[in-house]
Write a structure and sequence with these properties.
The protein is α+β, with helices and mostly antiparallel strands and about 270 residues long. Helix 3 packs parallel to helix 4 (about 200-210). The protein contains five helices and 16 strands. About 40% of the residues are buried. The chain has helices at about 20-30, 50-60, 150-170, 200-210, 245-250, and strands at about 5-10, 35-40, 65-75, 80, 85, 90-95, 100-110, 125-130, 135-140, 190-195, 215, 225-230, 230-235, 240-245, 250-255, 270. Helix content is about 20%, strand content about 35%. It has a six-stranded mixed beta sheet with strand order 3-6-2-1-16-15, with helices on one face.
Amino acid sequence: MAFKVVTYNIQYGIGLDGAYDLERIVDVVKDADVIALQEVTRGFMRNQGRDMVAEIEAMLPDRFAVSHMPSDVDFGSSVADGKAVQKRFQFGNMILSRWPILSARGHLLPRSMRTASLNLQRGALEALIETPDGPFRFYSVHLDHIDPQERISQILALKEIAFSAPHTGLAVTGLSEYGFPELPKAEDFILLGDFNFEPDLAEYRDMLAENGTLTDASAGDSSWSWTDPENRDHVKRLDYGFATPGFAERVAGAHVDQSAEGSDHMPVWLHFGD
């Protein structure tokens, strides 16, 4: 059966025009069967503290959704009238699916102390989904945007997490104790997201080399996927779908939707099946 997957860094809902408009973001991805999103936030001052997880779930009520916020810090919580009022900045990833999500885990990726520029805790959200073609693991990934060495360490950790999952177990094992079937191992997976490197860099080669074989399943369209809002001629390819061979062989095509205006990144689509 054919199905569609899309990955989209939605830049906390701020588009190329500088306006927050989540509806236009959801509108361009709503036809996908699996949606991987990055830069989903709660309590961020740049978008007036919106709860993007709640808003996206409300706009796509027929989808199953999971989220993971690896960066979570206090942004001015206080006690008012005897009640704790939490104000937290949360930054992370989200996956939505037309089919039930059998299990989900949030993984933290390596980071180093960097104070001269922003260094958010990065993560990878894992979702085990029973598609019509069988069970697969989908990861929504966002790597560091500044330090190549940090990205390389994150790549190594990410690949170890993904390739070891069938052997170490997913979110839970031993479910038979409670009368439920074990989760499928789902050997095949795809890493979707904003990797913050271009195809001519060492990080791209590291992603495809050793420690298990991966394929750039999004290479069917090598177009740019990011543009500078201040200079639209400044473009890069930063967003990908890296898949195991068993998953990649199902890819019938890929394209970048460069008409999207909801973020500085563009949605990258992968078409599976016929």
